[in-house]
């Protein structure tokens, strides 16, 4: 099985309440967001479009790299590559709906650049390797001893209108269909 295919028996993540504090109308820490390194080395752009979509994911693997032991058994862990490809494949439609798109993980920018090139992502990935957004927003995460107990952000998506949270998707399943879920929400909630 390759990283683009999801096993049929993936456990479905449950809403554990770890995002209930991320309320609609809450100010998003744009100052922190603007400091995060990007794969293009350009600053985050939250003004060219009325909305910014940030999808957070645990980590992406590299081709021929073994998945961590038990990765498929962790609800919400598997599917970072298919999720990113979904946002890639719907990127033009998301932009036509007035949204910038960014992916964000705690992996380093150098690591993320390989993913952007390999998957032909037309948008930047943001590195929260210093855990600034994770800590400020109290984002849900998990760790694995096999990965040196690095904080891995649980899969969630935040839609920001300028500097204000408009919507939070959490938990996300299945990850390969999530970009369509975001498109559906944008169409049902046009910018006023």
Automatic annotation (TrEMBL):
One of its GO terms (cellular component) is cytoplasm. Residues 78-163 form the Alkyl hydroperoxide reductase subunit C/ Thiol specific antioxidant domain. It holds the Pfam family AhpC-TSA. Coiled coil: none annotated. GO terms for molecular function: thioredoxin peroxidase activity. Keywords: Antioxidant, Disulfide bond, Oxidoreductase, Peroxidase, Redox-active center. It comes from the Eukaryota. The keyword Oxidoreductase applies. GO terms for biological process: cell redox homeostasis; cellular response to oxidative stress. InterPro entries: AhpC/TSA, Peroxiredoxin_BCP/PrxQ, Thioredoxin-like_sf. Transmembrane segments: none annotated. This is Alkyl hydroperoxide reductase subunit C/ Thiol specific antioxidant domain-containing protein.
């Amino acid at each position: 099985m390759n990283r683009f295919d999801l096993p049929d028996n993936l456990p479905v993540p449950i809403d554990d309440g770890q995002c209930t504090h991320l309320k609609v109308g809450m100010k998003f820490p744009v100052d922190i967001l603007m400091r995060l390194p990007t794969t293009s080395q350009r600053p985050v752009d939250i003004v060219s479009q009325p909305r910014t979509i940030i999808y957070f994911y645990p980590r992406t693997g590299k081709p021929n790299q073994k998945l961590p032991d038990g990765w498929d058994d962790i609800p919400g862990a598997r599917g970072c590559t298919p999720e990113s490809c979904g946002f890639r494949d719907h990127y033009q439609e998301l932009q036509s709906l007035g949204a910038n798109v960014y992916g964000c993980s705690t992996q380093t920018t150098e690591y993320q650049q390989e993913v952007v090139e390999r998957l032909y992502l037309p948008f930047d990935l943001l590195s929260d390797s210093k855990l600034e957004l994770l800590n400020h927003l109290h984002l849900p995460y998990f760790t694995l001893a096999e990965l040196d107990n690095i904080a891995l952000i649980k899969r969630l998506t935040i839609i920001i209108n300028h500097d204000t949270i408009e919507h939070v998707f959490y938990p996300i399943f299945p990850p390969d269909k999530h970009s369509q879920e975001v498109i559906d929400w944008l169409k049902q909630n046009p910018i006023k």
